[in-house]
Each structure stands twice: as C-alpha cells, then as structure tokens.
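Q: I have 247 residues here and want to know how they pack in 3D. Can you give me a structure?
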Amino acid sequence: MLIQAILLGLVGVLAVADSRLFGRQNISRPLILSSLAGLVLNDLTTGIVLGASLELMSMGFVAIGAAGPPNMQLGSIIATAFAITTGASTETALAIAIPVAIAGEFMSIIMRMVIAQFTHVADSAIEKGNFNVAKGIHTYGAFIFNAFVYFIPIALTVYFGTHVIDNVVQAIPDAVTKGLTVAGNLLSALGFAMLLSTMLSKKMFVYFLFGFLVVAYSGLDLIGLTLFAIIFAFVMDKIVYGREGSE
C-alpha cells in the first residue's frame, strides 16, 4: 500500500502541474484524476465511473475572484482510493469526496497565505537585480510548495485511511476554522471588487445594471441566462458596435 500511496500522491502532484507548468490541459478534472487513481489501484472501471459522477458534481463549482470552490482534486483521488480499497459503493465514495474536498479548500487557503509571502522574497531579489531568483520563485518555488501540500495529505490518507482527514479536521480549533472562513469571505469580496473595478465605468455600468436586474427578477436558470446573454451580445455586436465600426 505504501507504493500505491506514493503513486496516488504523485497523481495529486500531476494535478498541481496542470495549469501551473503544462498550461491548462484539464488533467486536474475529477474524471481524469479518478481514472488515473483507478489505474494505479488496478481498477480503472471504478475510477472512470466515480470520475464521471464527480465530474458532474463539480461542473457547477466556479472560482469567482479569490473565492475557491471545494478542492475536488483531493476529493476525487481520495474518494476513488477509498472506494477501490474498501469495496464501498459509489454513493458512499461520493459522500466521502465532499468533506475531503471542503477540508482541502481550507488547506488551500492556508497554502495561498504562505505562497503570498514568496512575493516579498521575489521583490527583494528583483531590487538586488537577481531576476533569475525571482523567476525561480514564481515558476518553481510556489509549485514545489503546492505539490507538497497535495502529495502529503493524499499519501497519508491513502496509507492510513480516510479517517485521518476527519481526525485532522476535527482537531482544528473552532476559532481557526471560523477565522479561515472569515478570511475566505473577505477574499471573495476582494475578488468581486476587482472584477467590478473593470466594469464600473460610465460606458459599462448600464450593462452591469441590466445584467443584475435580469438575474434578480427574470427567474431564468443559468442555461437560460447564458443563452439570453449570447443572443444579446450578438445583437449588440451587429447593431451597435458594427455601426460604430462602419462610421
């Protein structure tokens, strides 16, 4: 089991490398990670089935600004390993995935706080003219730290059992948990503020207000709003901006 725990930890490192070293290849999607976990544990079929279910669950998770959704990378790998090694049902594995993913997001918040400090080290290196040092910190330093944050929980959880994560979460004091929740909410507000700062101009404000009112009062679901927005954007491009271009 030690070898399998290490290999599954490396699958987590591969998820980190996606979009950070390789560009966005969607390797970190639950379907891919669960399939790789199933391949490591010699049960590819279960990995694919669980991956498909977890993919459907995570399709609605969207990171807005600095607010991150549950960490489905950790959840997918650990839930798949739990299902295969214990023979648990798909439903049980899915029930395990969400608490693990939520705990993983708490770890991600702490990880971002630590990685943010790397910026100050890089700034000092730039002031001294050590540009290669700054480049290494941004390209590899944060990635290596991030990789350990994924590798260690996955390897330990698979080796000792999923109850390890639950015990760790239960051991966190309420004050720390609430503090991280407040910090996450503040980051969410900051993320929204950063997005709105590009929209709250005299030219764009009316579109923002129109979209807000449509969402608030139309009662349309997400698919309906998206289709409505596509048609509206097409009409605006052809009638308004097309006319401005011809003039």
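Q: Anything worth noting?
A: The two ends are 70 Å apart (CA to CA). The mean pLDDT is 77.
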